[in-house]
Specification:
Length: 97
């Protein structure tokens, strides 16, 4: 899976999603435990969800940021679950979020 997101205003790509956990490729790293806001668009609607960083590691020119989504409303949870079935081959982050 590859889906464009904004993580604290920085472009990123959600590459893995399993339950409440995900991985995002980003040009920025975040320390473990840091609260984050992650934005994405789905079917013309903009979502911004809360997460906490589980850690970051450098991979090539980017960072892989592991996150745990928290305090999700049903609509947000359903939207994230929908993302698990979507894969955009050349994902780029949304321009204005």
């Amino acid at each position: 899976m590859k889906y464009p997101v904004k993580i604290e205003g920085v472009d990123g790509v959600l590459t893995q999603l399993q339950g409440e956990n995900g991985e995002i490729e980003s040009e920025a790293s975040f320390p473990p435990g840091k609260p984050l806001r992650i934005g994405f668009e789905l079917e013309g609607k903009t979502f911004e969800v809360s997460a906490k960083t589980r850690g970051s590691r450098k991979v090539d020119a980017a960072f892989v940021v592991r996150v745990r989504f928290i305090n999700l409303r049903r609509e947000e949870r359903d939207a994230l679950e929908s993302l698990a079935n979507i894969s955009l081959p050349d994902a780029t982050a949304p321009k204005n979020m």
